[in-house]
Amino acid sequence: MDMISVDLGPNAGDKVGDEAILWGAELPVERVAAATGISAYELITKLTQRVAMEYIGD
């Protein structure tokens, strides 16, 4: 099962169903990798086809 759990803190205004960006222009995958101890390569290649992905670029 593809799942993720995120603690946004007690003052977050986010709710179930809101869009979440796991990494992107303002949060590079390398920064996420460093914070989680998982390589950027592994983060990207472990995504399955069930996860909707959108590439926005030049």
TrEMBL record:
SUPFAM superfamilies: Alanine racemase C-terminal domain-like (SSF50621)
Keyword Isomerase carried by entry: yes
A Pfam family assignment: Ala_racemase_C
SMART domains tied to this protein: Ala_racemase_C
Molecular function terms, GO-annotated: alanine racemase activity; pyridoxal phosphate binding
Cofactor: pyridoxal 5'-phosphate
Enzyme class (EC, first level): isomerase
Annotated Alanine racemase C-terminal domain residues: 1-56
EC number: 5.1.1.1
Family recorded in the similarity comment: Belongs to the alanine racemase family.
Protein name stated in the entry: Alanine racemase, biosynthetic
InterPro entries xrefs: Ala_racemase, Ala_racemase/Decarboxylase_C, Ala_racemase_C
Keywords: Isomerase, Pyridoxal phosphate
Regions annotated as coiled coil: none
GO biological processes: D-alanine biosynthetic process
Record field: catalytic activity: L-alanine = D-alanine
GO cellular component: cytosol
